[in-house]
Amino acid sequence: MLQPSLAKRLKRWVRYWVVRIGLAVVSRLPVRMAARLGEAFGSAAFHLAAGERRKALESLAVAFPEKTELERKAIALSSFRHLGRSTFENACLPKLDPSLDARVEWPAADRERLEQAVRLRRGVVLVTGHVGNWELLAQFLIQSKVDGVTVAKELSDPRLTALLDDFRAQRGVRSLWRGADGTAKSILRALRSGQVIGILIDQDTDVQSVFVPFFGKLAATPRAAADLALRTSAPMVMAFCQRKQDGRYRVSIEEVAFEPTGEREADVVSLTAQLTSRIEDAIRRAPEQWVWMHRRWKTRP
């Protein structure tokens, strides 16, 4: 494997320490102050990071061709602000613990959907995306006594992966990293023991994928969730944690019903398409709460 260039290694070193020091500083701020500061950082990033802004506007043009350029620009700005706010809030998550139930709404009907799936004792494949505040979703479910783990992809810098792993572990969230030895066996063991496995499938990454529609255009989409459910017969649910107008969050749980045909590859594509459609619906409910700067359609069939 080729070693990164000196410039790239230096960039990663600087980025690691900026993130580490930033987490240490922001975690000491009051939550409301951190949220406001995060929105300010998001706004600054929108205006200063021309490349990321361009990618967001290009993605929005694909998803919402009927909107004006001004409307798409407003969504992009709100998306940057939301991401900044969520990131800074997450750094303050230890401060949220005592009052997390007051900040996150989980309707009884949605809670019952997840509990009903858990009661089947076959494990649960919980699918979500980078919608709303997915880090808060994981912590809230764990704090609500849901026995589960998340499946995540390593970051380009192993030090940042370790930092993120430690950050989540301090909040009770355990991650299984896709590139680690034995992860597949660990996932199957967790399902067989009745645990909930959380998987995000809304990004075009270097994993096994299938092409399914996303906002009307084929997008390479991770197939792991569909493969796992079809292989184990574990029940599936969709879960989202989206910000409401009053600043609080709402956790929603949706059942996923699917009847396999026996044609495994066709079933994987069909089920992944259904899951992706649910994610698209959640994004349409609050377009500013998705990561439009991600190049969702970069891989072409």
Question: How would you explain this protein's 3D organization?
Answer:
- The structure is a single chain.
- The protein is α/β, with parallel strands linked by helices.
- It has one domain (6-289).
- 53% of the residues lie in helices and 16% in strands.
- It contains 12 helices and 9 strands.
- The protein has helices spanning 6-26, 31-48, 50-63, 69-91, 93-96, 100-103, 108-119, 134-143, 158-169, 183-192, 224-232, 264-285; strands at residues 104-105, 124-128, 148-152, 175-177, 196-200, 209-214, 217-222, 236-243, 249-256.
- It starts with 5 loop residues before the first helix and ends in a 16-residue tail after the last helix.
- 34% of the residues are buried.
List keywords for this structure.
301 residues
How would you summarize what this structure contains?
By secondary structure, this protein is of the alpha/beta class. The protein is 53% helix and 16% strand.
Rounded Rg: 19 Å
Query: What is the chain-wise order of helices and strands?
Result: HHHHHHEHEHEHEHEEEHEEH
Low-pLDDT residue spans: none
Strand order of the largest sheet: 1-9-8-2-5-3-4
Structural class: alpha/beta
Q: How far from one another are the termini?
A: 27 Å
Residue-averaged pLDDT: 93
Write the layout of secondary structure elements.
Blueprint: H1 6-26, H2 31-48, H3 50-63, H4 69-91, H5 93-96, H6 100-103, E1 104-105, H7 108-119, E2 124-128, H8 134-143, E3 148-152, H9 158-169, E4 175-177, H10 183-192, E5 196-200, E6 209-214, E7 217-222, H11 224-232, E8 236-243, E9 249-256, H12 264-285
Parallel strand pairs: 1-9, 2-5, 2-8, 3-4, 3-5
Antiparallel strand pairs: 6-7, 8-9
